[in-house]
Design a protein that fits this description.
Layout (H helix, E strand, L loop, with lengths): L8 H18 L17 E10 H11 L3 E4 L6 E10 H11 L2 E6 L2 E6 H5 L3 E6 L5 H4 L12 E5 L4 E6 L1 H14 L5 E12 H7 L12 E2 L8 E2 L7 E2 L12 E5 L5 H10 L3 E5 L2 E5 L4 E19 L2 E7 L6 E16 L4 E19 L2 E16 L3 E18 L14 E21 L1 H7 L1
Helix pairs in contact: 1-2
């Protein structure tokens, strides 16, 4: 059904009266009141009018959607509409935007007015953040900000600028306050140790048993004189399930073990070498990376074939002719603090050593071993990573001067001793949660 505009005196008045009567009839009973609150079923409607007063069309739509309506002074003019089976809210938005208007719904009341009028309801607030990243926090406001509202991050002032209805601004401010909390910090203290098998046995590094921490008489739990209970080992490590099947295993050390004292004493006895003792602070749930090792620079060799002969030249003189080979141990630890004082550690470790027995064009290969694991330790306790072995072979020749040089009989006055020493790389990791009052001093 269509409505045409006809010029004329009394006929125009009659047409307007008929329009107010027929417009509600033109709207189908199938509506989709997504901005209403008393109907949960999705409904559609159809309408077709030409050159009708926009105020009359909006009143008819509000009536069919069971909304009260308030029209501002600027809601005037003619409108031609032809919709078929579309949701109510889509039709409302298209009619209003096409005529330079804006609308809002509060307490089941539809308010339509000029953009200036409706904008008077909009408020602007600047929320300054102390800890949260504004570009990340502003993404959390998408479900709160209305369609006509805006929110954007200002990195320079670490703030979020919100323009919206007052009730939405209040919701946004409450959410940002909950998100803007100071992140906890964790100090990761690592000790990278090259130890002999004897030291590993002395400190109790035997994969599987657990340390009972029993009391002693006349001594301590570390160096007991007279044990009064079961003397088990200090490290609890599951030997049946090595990490990644590479022989690298992980365990925890009880707080009763005086680790620093034992490491210092063993280094004095020559049973170990403390390669590095790095300490690094990181924010909760952020990775901390530690590297300890050497970087070799090897000269590049180039083979040149001339007339069937091969000549090998070595390039040197600048870094362009050198190949860098990084060796050592790389340790990446990502802590996550729980509410009960425990720390979840995501540990990634990689050990690399140059292998000069396998070279290509003078560049040695790199033997690598890596593993990843996830452990839970209490604040201040120590995790130990073991299973990174290497063998150091040595040969020593002893001879009696002059006599060892006698032909045939010289070997009777000389001897050769071969020795193989197995070393194990141990990595001790101790996470310590930094309390709030201590963070300022640490920083």
């Amino acid at each position: 059904m269509s409505i045409r505009r006809i010029d004329g005196g009394w006929f125009t008045s009659l047409l307007l009266a008929a329009l107010l009567f027929f417009i509600p009839c033109l709207v189908s009973a199938e509506l989709n009141p997504r901005i209403a609150t008393d109907d949960s079923q999705e409904r559609l409607f159809s309408i077709e009018v030409r050159e009708a007063e926009i105020s009359d069309v909006l009143r008819a739509l509000a009536q069919q959607s069971r909304l009260n309506i308030i029209l501002g002074e600027g809601v005037t003019g003619k409108v031609s509409v032809s919709f078929r089976n579309i949701p109510f809210q889509d039709a409302m938005e298209m009619i209003i935007k096409a005529n330079g208007l804006m609308y809002t719904v509060q307490n089941n009341i539809l308010w339509v007015g000029k953009k200036v009028d409706v904008s008077d309801e909009m408020k602007v607030e600047i929320v300054k953040l102390n800890n949260a990243d504004p570009t990340v926090a502003v993404q959390q406001l998408k479900g709160i900000i209305s369609e006509s509202g805006t929110a954007f991050a200002d990195q320079r002032t670490n703030s979020i600028i919100i323009r919206d209805l007052p009730r939405n601004i209040t919701k946004s401010r409450n959410l940002l306050t909950a998100l803007d909390t100071q992140a906890a910090q964790v100090v990761i203290e690592a000790r990278i140790v090259e130890a002999t098998n004897n030291f590993a046995r002395q400190i109790g590094v035997r994969w599987g048993p657990t340390y009972t921490g029993s009391n002693t008489l006349g001594g301590s739990a570390l160096l007991p004189d007279t044990p009064t209970g079961d003397r088990n080992f200090a490290v609890n490590l599951p030997a049946t399930n090595p990490t990644s099947g590479l022989g690298i295993v992980v365990g925890s050390i009880s707080g009763k073990l005086i680790l620093d004292l034992e490491l210092s004493a063993a280094e004095t006895r020559g049973e170990l070498k403390i390669v590095s003792s790095p300490k690094i602070a990181t924010v909760d749930n952020r990775p901390a990376t530690i590297h300890s090792g050497l970087t070799f620079r090897v000269k590049l060799s180039q083979a040149i074939v001339t007339g069937g002969a091969t000549t090998t030249t070595t390039t040197s003189g600048d870094l362009g002719g050198l190949e860098e080979i990084k060796t050592g141990i790389d340790l990446t630890v990502t802590p996550k603090i729980s509410d009960d004082g425990f720390v979840f550690l995501n540990i990634n470790t990689q050990k690399s050593d140059p292998d000069f027995s396998r070279t290509i064009d003078g560049i040695p290969g790199v033997a690598e071993k890596s593993a990843s694991t996830f452990v839970i330790v209490k604040d201040g306790e120590t995790v130990v990573i073991g299973g990174l072995y290497r063998t150091v072979a040595s040969e020593q020749k002893n001879a009696v001067p002059f006599l060892s040089r006698i032909p045939v009989l010289g070997h009777l006055f000389s001897s050769t001793a071969k020795d193989e020493q197995h070393e194990e790389l141990l990595v001790f990791i101790t996470p310590k949660i930094v309390k709030y009052e201590k963070r300022e001093v640490l920083n």
